[in-house]
Design a protein that fits this description.
The protein is mainly alpha-helical. The protein has helices at about 1-35, 40-80, 85-90, 95-115, 125-140, 155-185, 190-225, 230-235, 235-265, 270-295, 315-320, 330-340, 350-380, 390-405, 415-420, 425-445, 460-470, 480-485, 490-510, 515-535. The chain is globular and about 70 Å long.
């Protein structure tokens, strides 16, 4: 139960962060990017109405996620240790009071946005919305690692607030900019074109300022919490920080392309309107994944606090050293005879368990690597038959369903529902469903059976979900070295999965002349994931 509560904690924190970004970033977006005067009509009025709706929805999402954390997840985890539901005691702690404050402030911001949207567009109402946004960002200081530090508590709390302000303004602004870009493209016409370019230019200025807040305090927090190069590569916290840096770099590349396109003005407003939405949507996807990765950091102890259980760079590198894949697996009966119960997460793993897991990963690697090669072959345009590569996902799903959890149904003694309360089993079941959906939808698209434009977006959205799931997959509650080394390959695979997803998204959404590069990128990422699986090692 404690493990499942930990997984829900990460998930709900990520959902709450996305809601805050939509709400607080939306307030900044309306005031600094759209800047519609009172009574403005046309494109700006439509964008403003859509933004206020999203602000209210985001605030309610943040309030709901925090309420579930306070009333269900955290007391559930504490009840596992104490034997009773300590809700009252928990809510009176500093952390509990800060969480209740977030719920109240977010609900109030949702009400303020609703009032403005219904016609109360006066300075006083906007002042209330701005004040609530400021209080919400300040509230973050009491819900992060900084509040528990014995040294430099105040500077770390301030750095946390500034870092999160930059993140929610940037990612939230991108969410709202997607809506504007779609309205802009639909509006078309000579009158809308220059207005759209001006709004995108304003957002670029706001985004640059927000990214300064993301990077400056982020570097300070990373130095304070990681403490050195050893903590960067040898702990789960450090690896997640590296993953965040890689995701941010990808988003900055896309933002840079948009910035250059606007500044040069070469393609014209019409061509910008055709390309900008796809780039902005991809930035949003990467930004949301960044927020989820940041949420997963809250479940990990800072690297400076991990000394005895820290892995060396050589130990980490050994997990990626090429070697022959394992082609045999221990029998199920032999594995069940030595394996500890599924809910005993601290039991020492036996050699048979390592061998079983490595065989599973290597077999999955053959599936994924083969599909990646076929996808690359299809990109050449010389092998039309290779378009059927998504059917390989069906074989992969069947293999994973049978082999993922040998102590659970259908191979092991643990029943289906009994095993579903364990987060690793639950995540494995979700992965199987994702893989089946990937096979069905993408094969139907490539074989011409699914022709609706939305059908082509299912594959990248599912890949993005799978990549995000890998990045939050069963992080060590106790951060033992062996558990970290077992999971260290999840981060690069999750990162490649996210890049693969949004590369495919760009291939689908960009004009035909711009699809070549993203097409090769996502296919190469799938092939690289297969290679990582083929060299996967737990010993």
């Amino acid at each position: 139960m404690t493990q499942l509560a930990g997984f829900l904690d990460v998930l709900l924190r990520g959902v709450g962060a996305v809601g805050l970004a939509a709400a607080i970033g939306g307030v900044v977006h309306v005031l600094l990017v759209l800047r519609p005067p009172a009574g403005a009509g046309g494109l700006l009025a439509a964008a403003r109405g859509r933004a206020l709706t999203l602000i209210g929805a985001g605030a309610l999402l943040a309030a709901g996620a925090e309420a579930l954390l306070l009333l269900l997840v955290h007391p559930w985890a504490l009840a596992e240790d104490s034997g009773r539901w300590p809700l009252r005691e928990f809510l009176t702690t500093e952390f509990g009071l800060a969480g209740l404050g977030r719920v109240a402030l977010a609900a109030a911001l949702a009400a303020a946005a609703r009032g403005i949207r219904r016609g109360g567009d006066g300075p006083a109402r906007w002042a209330v919305a701005i004040g609530l946004g400021i209080l919400l960002t300040a509230n973050a200081a009491w819900l992060a690692h900084a509040v528990s530090r014995l040294h430099d508590r105040a500077p770390l709390m301030i750095g946390t607030v500034l870092h999160q302000v930059g993140a929610v303004v940037w990612v939230g602004g991108l969410m709202h900019l997607v809506g504007f870009a779609l309205l802009w493209r639909r509006a078309g016409g000579p009158a809308a074109e220059p207005l759209g370019v001006r709004v995108l230019a304003r957002f670029s200025a706001v985004a640059i300022a927000a990214l300064v807040l993301v990077l400056g305090p982020g570097i300070y927090l990373s130095i304070s919490y990681i403490g050195g190069w050893g903590g960067l590569a040898g702990t789960g916290y450090g690896v997640m920080v590296l993953t965040k840096v890689a995701l941010l770099a990808c988003a900055l590349v896309l933002g840079g392309l948009n910035f250059l396109m606007l500044r040069r003005g070469g393609p014209g407003a019409g061509a910008i309107a055709a390309r900008a939405p796809a780039f902005i949507e991809t930035e949003v996807g990467l930004g949301i994944t960044l927020l989820l990765a940041a949420a997963s950091l809250t479940s990990l102890p800072p690297s400076v606090d991990v000394v005895a259980d820290r892995a060396t760079p050589a130990e980490v590198a050994a997990r990626f050293r090429p070697a022959m894949p394992r082609l045999t697996s221990p029998p199920v009966a032999q594995l069940l005879a030595v394996a500890a119960p599924m809910d005993d997460t601290l039991a020492k793993r036996q050699p048979e368990e390592y061998a079983w897991s490595e065989y599973n990963h290597h077999a999955a690697g053959f599936f994924v690597f083969g599909m990646g090669l076929l996808a690359l072959l299809e990109q050449t345009g010389r092998a039309r038959w290779a378009r059927h590569w998504p059917l390989g996902f069906l074989g992969l799903a069947a293999f994973l369903f049978m082999r993922n959890d040998p102590r659970a149904w259908p191979l092991g003694p643990a029943g289906f529902w009994e095993s579903m309360v364990l987060p690793d089993v639950l995540q494995h079941r979700l992965v199987v469903l994702l893989v089946v959906a990937l096979a069905v939808f993408e094969w139907m698209v490539r074989s011409g059976r699914l022709t609706r434009p939305g059908g082509r977006l299912v594959f990248p959205l599912l890949c993005a979900s799978g990549g995000a799931l890998l990045l939050t997959h069963s992080h060590a509650m106790f951060n033992l070295k062996t558990e970290f080394l077992t999971e260290v390959s999840h981060a690069p695979m999750g990162l490649l999965g996210v890049i693969m997803a949004w590369g495919r998204w760009l291939e689908v959404r960009l004009p035909p002349a711009d699809r070549l590069v993203p097409g090769w990128i996502w296919a190469a990422c799938m092939t690289a994931i297969g290679l990582i699986l083929l060299v996967y090692r737990e010993t």
